[in-house]
């Protein structure tokens, strides 16, 4: 089950679409925090002062995290930004602090509402520090529930405050030290208006009679934030270019190279793509007879960092080529989930008819509500029911199945009768 309550990528500004990053020169620039840029907290005395300040504040806490996933192996936090009414903005360098520091922070803010933009991106990094919300408000998710076309933090600030929030440091290497002053200014601005934005979004949700939807989604996010991460099965299968490979032998080359790269990335705390790009792995695997010469003729292996580890790549290639047929990875994994719907017309015609009817019905309902269809209900949920519907396939039984899959009450209330009607029409 996906950790995203809507089964769509959360829009953090470092991952936002280009239109979310478009400059708005006609709007005034939100250039500096109203209270200035606070000093970075990186000593025990400063941490204790920060705890006291947060405890003396009131209301929810706005939280943001800066990571360095484009540069580092892990998704750990390299800067925390917190803001609370009465205590101002706090910038915390996590690197000098130990577990007891985070326990003190968790005790101070753990029971108040956290305001986060795109929570599914930040809560894993916070959970690594032992920081888990009891309740939260996700401003990005609130925007999606309101049907807003652009829900990055920048566009929401523009819409509600008529200010342009510059995002020029969104892809910076936040693991570098010392952090430049202009980066700290950028980081502080990410939480400068988050509390006010939360209140304005909540008011719109209430006016649209969708505040209860949001509360259910936020509760689901908080619940998921407390759960340990689930390891992916065969993560190497997500290597770019895999769709071009057709044989178990080719997949074996990808697998061995992927694990060799992953071990090096972990050891040196480097983003895997900085060591060897996915494209190079797939290109080598696609060769009819992959060899040392093939490797040396592929651009990705010519990079300075990749050349440094040529012995590792050749050893991985030798391991892959030496595997007996019985140890080669299968081209397709067995799965409990249905195959892609495009294959249903031949393998399961009744399911295909249900899928066509359900797709049109869900899309129509989402349009009626002004939502993207995937924001109304996770597509995998209703596809599962198309493949294997309950018996009888009425709204009550469908709702029960959706609940088991993870759909929230508001989603079940809206979608269950829509699916029941679509299934009945498809089976006539």
TrEMBL record:
<feature type="compositionally biased region" description="Basic and acidic residues">
    <location>
        <begin position="9"/>
        <end position="20"/>
    </location>
</feature>
<feature type="domain" description="HRDC">
    <location>
        <begin position="247"/>
        <end position="327"/>
    </location>
</feature>
<dbReference type="Pfam" id="PF18305">
    <property type="entry name" value="DNA_pol_A_exoN"/>
</dbReference>
<dbReference type="InterPro" id="IPR044876">
    <property type="entry name" value="HRDC_dom_sf"/>
</dbReference>
<dbReference type="Pfam" id="PF00570">
    <property type="entry name" value="HRDC"/>
</dbReference>
<dbReference type="GO" id="GO:0008408">
    <property type="term" value="F:3'-5' exonuclease activity"/>
</dbReference>
<dbReference type="GO" id="GO:0003676">
    <property type="term" value="F:nucleic acid binding"/>
</dbReference>
<dbReference type="InterPro" id="IPR010997">
    <property type="entry name" value="HRDC-like_sf"/>
</dbReference>
<dbReference type="InterPro" id="IPR036397">
    <property type="entry name" value="RNaseH_sf"/>
</dbReference>
<dbReference type="InterPro" id="IPR002562">
    <property type="entry name" value="3'-5'_exonuclease_dom"/>
</dbReference>
<protein>
    <submittedName>
        <fullName>Ribonuclease D</fullName>
    </submittedName>
</protein>
<dbReference type="GO" id="GO:0006139">
    <property type="term" value="P:nucleobase-containing compound metabolic process"/>
</dbReference>
<dbReference type="InterPro" id="IPR002121">
    <property type="entry name" value="HRDC_dom"/>
</dbReference>
<feature type="region of interest" description="Disordered">
    <location>
        <begin position="329"/>
        <end position="348"/>
    </location>
</feature>
<feature type="region of interest" description="Disordered">
    <location>
        <begin position="1"/>
        <end position="20"/>
    </location>
</feature>
<dbReference type="InterPro" id="IPR012337">
    <property type="entry name" value="RNaseH-like_sf"/>
</dbReference>
<dbReference type="GO" id="GO:0000166">
    <property type="term" value="F:nucleotide binding"/>
</dbReference>
<dbReference type="InterPro" id="IPR041605">
    <property type="entry name" value="Exo_C"/>
</dbReference>
<dbReference type="InterPro" id="IPR051086">
    <property type="entry name" value="RNase_D-like"/>
</dbReference>
<dbReference type="Pfam" id="PF01612">
    <property type="entry name" value="DNA_pol_A_exo1"/>
</dbReference>
């Amino acid at each position: 089950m996906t950790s995203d309550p809507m089964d769509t990528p959360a829009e953090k500004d470092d991952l936002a679409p280009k239109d979310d990053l478009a400059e708005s020169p006609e709007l005034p620039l939100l250039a500096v925090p109203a209270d200035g840029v606070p000093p970075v907290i990186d000593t025990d005395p400063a941490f204790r002062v920060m705890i006291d300040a947060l405890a003396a504040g009131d209301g929810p806490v706005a939280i943001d995290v800066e990571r360095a996933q484009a540069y580092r192996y892990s998704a750990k936090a390299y800067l925390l930004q917190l803001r609370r009414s009465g205590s101002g903005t706090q910038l915390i360098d996590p690197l000098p602090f130990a577990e007891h520091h985070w326990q003190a922070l968790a005790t101070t803010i753990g029971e108040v509402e956290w305001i986060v933009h795109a929570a599914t991106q930040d809560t894993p990094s916070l959970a690594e520090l032992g920081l888990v919300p009891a309740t939260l408000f996700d401003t990005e998710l609130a925007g999606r529930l309101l049907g807003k076309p652009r829900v990055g933090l920048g566009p929401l600030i523009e819409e509600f405050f008529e200010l342009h929030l510059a995002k020029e440091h969104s892809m910076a290497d936040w693991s570098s030290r010392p952090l430049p002053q202009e980066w700290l200014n950028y980081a502080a601005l990410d939480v400068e208006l988050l509390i006010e934005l939360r209140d304005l979004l909540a008011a719109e949700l209430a006016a649209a009679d969708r505040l209860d939807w949001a509360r259910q989604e936020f509760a689901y996010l908080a619940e998921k934030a407390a759960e340990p991460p689930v390891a992916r099965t065969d993560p190497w299968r997500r290597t770019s270019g895999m769709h071009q490979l057709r044989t178990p032998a080719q997949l074996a080359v990808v697998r061995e190279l992927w694990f060799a790269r992953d071990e090096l990335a972990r050891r040196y705390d480097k983003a895997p793509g900085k060591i060897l790009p996915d494209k190079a792995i797939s290109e080598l695997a696609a060769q009819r007879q992959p060899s040392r010469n093939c490797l040396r003729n592929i651009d990705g292996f010519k990079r300075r960092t990749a050349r440094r580890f040529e012995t590792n790549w050749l050893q991985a290639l030798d391991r892959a080529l030496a595997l007996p047929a019985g140890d080669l990875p299968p081209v397709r994994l067995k799965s409990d989930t249905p195959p892609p719907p495009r294959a249903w017309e031949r393998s399961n015609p009744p399911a295909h008819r249900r899928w066509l009817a359900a797709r049109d019905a869900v899309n129509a309902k989402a349009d009626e509500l002004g939502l993207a269809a995937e924001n109304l209900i996770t597509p995998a949920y209703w596809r599962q029911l198309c493949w294997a519907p309950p018996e009888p396939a009425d709204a009550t039984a469908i709702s029960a199945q959706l609940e088991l899959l993870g759909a929230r009450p508001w989603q079940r209330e809206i979608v269950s009768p829509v699916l029941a009607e679509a299934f009945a029409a498809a089976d006539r």
